[in-house]
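Q: Could you fold this chain for me?
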Amino acid sequence: MLVYPCGLDVSSRSLRFLAARLREHHRQIGSRWRRLSAGRQALLALAHLRNGTTYAQLAAGFRIGTSTACRYIREAVDLLAALAPTLAEAVKTASTKAFVILDGTLLPIDRIAADRPFYSGKHKRHGLNVQVIADPHGRLLWASPALPGAVHDNKAARTHDITGALEEAGVECWADKGYRGAGGTMRVPYWGRWETLSAGQQAHNRSHAKIRALVEQAMATLKTWRLLRKLRCSTTRITSLAQAVLTLHLTCSN
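A: Sure. Below is the predicted structure, expressed as structure tokens.
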């Protein structure tokens, strides 16, 4: 396999943060010797998350075995995922905002047609449903654990108790028609065909759509980490990957 140098469009702050967490973890478990230093292991994990580079390709570039690359990346991802904010912590942050925006995004996965629970009829592809909360400027505040793609956004919000948490904190939330009937502080557009709505309802829906559109920035933030654009790993690992990306984003954006 040929090896070539490659740039990584990730801030040095992310590298320093992850390397520090890895050094601390290595001390706690008493790991004395590694094929890669904490800094190199952090770089390995960031390359996998940011570019979606495979274990085999990374192993060749870092001159380690494929199984070692897999183990090192998984260790780093689990450390980052454990640091991701909970829904309660995200709602506490959201309570300082005028309102938040909620929407679901599909993380595509490599699955066959028989895997019906993971097939999203809305997106016409297999994937996992992740709920995203953004602030009024479209900045990512929280990403939920992943659910099968067949799960509707409204059901996903109930499963994670997002509606109840926001209502308890008194945080207004703007969402699309997929959350109709959620109740609480959820604000959704008027339901019905466009021609059957009054002029005032049409104006309200246009204004509502402009505000909700900002959540697309938060979703794009997740998918700048290219691994999340087409996942080929076990579905049980996807929540950890999404939470790891969330941790890195919040660490570098604050």
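A (continued): Residues 87-223 form one domain.
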